[in-house]
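INFO worker-7 received task bundle
INFO bundle size: 2
INFO processing item 0
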Amino acid sequence: MPDYYYFPVIIISPALAAIIYAMVLRWRKENFAKCLTQSGAMMFGSCHCPRCQAQKAMFDSAWQYVTYIEANNTCPNYDPNWGQKLGLSGTIAFPTWKFPDGFTCQYQDHVLSLDELAALGKLHGANCKY
């Protein structure tokens, strides 16, 4: 009997590792976006707003699962009732997130990372993990 044993070693090529990582990241984003929508969180924005486009890009293909309310009447999918849904008046900075407990979050010079969005959501009724 030999004094050593052979253990199978799985060698993952960098290309395969990158594919697996991309799949896991997409899955995380999709689950996060679906959870936000199921909890009642929604984003208000404008198709002309660069920060809104940056926020959408963070979700990649999972953006389709986010509840998005278009607030600019020159954009496709404009929702004329966006003001009532948001419940705010006055000057609004986009993107604006509204959480299930009614809390709204808007920044004029900052786009929330998905981690920041998850942390805010946890505080305001959207207990979604990213």
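INFO item 0 finished
INFO processing item 1
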Amino acid sequence: LAVTFDFQRPCTFREVVLISRSKRLSVRIEVAAAATGPWQAAYDRARADCPDTQFHRLMLAAPATGRHLRLTVQAEGITWLDEVLAWGEAEVTADMPEAYRPVVSPPIVAEIAFSSIPGIAKTSFSDARYWDWLREIGNAAVQPAVWSVPIGFGLMVAGSLVSRSKVPANVGRTMVRLHTPERVRVDRRF
């Protein structure tokens, strides 16, 4: 997998961070002043030298300067590249202000389905729906007892009221057995 980034200005790169679902990656980082090259190698690592991790912090041996940054990444099987962070300094002038907007915005992956009960498709929900729900409940997610205890108590009362006519015949005997002291002689057989 080869990816080229155009930063629209000269930059000095010192570090690149890769986040990837592919854990063991071979990585080559190259920098160039123009999209056509020439490309200067800034970092090279073989897959055998890669730690088994999803977070790859790649410190360049020496600062590399250029407008374009090219990453060549290879994993065993499918190569995933989820996020790339480039660290360093960028030239800021009146012609190239600090507020930078990419020319081409990357596609946003959405609608990844998760099942709340594995194997039952009707319980699936999208990742976007989950993050929307999490934003909506906000602080309630930090302290779940604040809302889950009253809901649980309410469900218990509602269940009791709905099934009031379905009280088992031996419930009186069970309640006496549970609430009388052991020293009182009561038939304790089920």
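INFO item 1 finished
INFO post-check item 1: The helical segments are 127-137, 145-162, 171-179.
INFO post-check item 1: Residues 14 and 99 are 21 Å apart (CA to CA).
INFO worker-7 idle
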